[in-house]
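thought: fold this chain, then report.
action: predict
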Amino acid sequence: MLTRTRLQRREPRPAPVVAPRPAADGAVPVGMRIAGAWSWRILAIAGVVGLLVFLVIQLRYIVIPLLVAVLISALLVPLVQFLRRHRWPKWLAVTVAMVGLLAIVSGLIFLVVTQITSDFPRLRDRTVERIEEFREYLVTSPLAISEAELNQYLAQGWEALQRDTGALLTGAASVGSTAGHFLAGLLLALFATLFILIDGRGIWNWTVRLFPRRARRAVNGSGEAGWLTLTTFVKVQIFVAAVDAVGIALVAFFLGLPLVIPIAVMVFLGSFVPIVGAVVTGSVAVFIALIYQGPVAALVMLGGVLLVQQLEGHVLQPLIMGTAVKVHPLAVVVAVAAGGFIAGIPGTLFAVPIVAVLNVMVKYIASGAWRENPHPVLDDVVSDSGRRKSDV
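observation:
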């Protein structure tokens, strides 16, 4: 009886039933099946991204003011929080932040308009003189362009301008439409900034509740990490832009150029497009130096612009920006080019902060830090980025 029981226990278990593999799967190599699985997933992601880009382009008159409001809020929210920590009432802190911003912008616009009004006639006269000098040079140069040929070229250009009168009128109408869109977008940006300062946390909590319950912890933590990155980026970029503007304006001032304040404001705004913004806007100063004081001053001005750009690229950006918003220069150039191709000037402005924020958010979610630290601080973002950089 005991031997029979042992034999029964030693009986082999029935083998599991394996479903037969379809003939098609057996005919396709394993590598091809893996490539196909990757391909349809990549196509699905590309379709979603393309749909988002299409919606952003179609709703650009709403999306762009909202993005501007987010950038402004990233600068003003720390100020409001600072005032709140010093026991200021919330309404007073928000009012001081908004009124201070409007006062600074209005003051800059007043200074620019005043200097342009006072110095533009002199610059215009100098421009006419330089054009006449260049015309005489063409006539007397080895190119041997005669006066009749030059007048013929000018006449052909004037005829082309007259033929395109209809297009110019259409462009003028579009300028009027663009001015209306600009005013509406400005008001929308101001209202959105005001509401973010008043109830930004409530708006973000409502956004998080749109996601599934299991994903809310990761979404909330990554959003806070991205917001820390954005606030750091905006503050540092304002400092870098101010250094660029002051440096180029000082060179223009010592050269005795007109429109120094407009040049400084233009460089300051252009510097929000990293790497290329200061160079493009600084070329205006080079042109003014060429028109007003000649090629030697233009070369000196060009040297000043390049020197300031090198200071930004090799000292300010690596030293001050920090690892929290560290983006490779090649990624910056590609992001700026792609943003300009997709959305023009607004695309170049928002490309780098979007890439920096997405970079930190993806790293935060992929690292799993949201499980243990759902509310990161700036030190967590910086230390995580630095640790990953050293591990590579």
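thought: worth noting. The radius of gyration is 30 Å.
final: tokens above.
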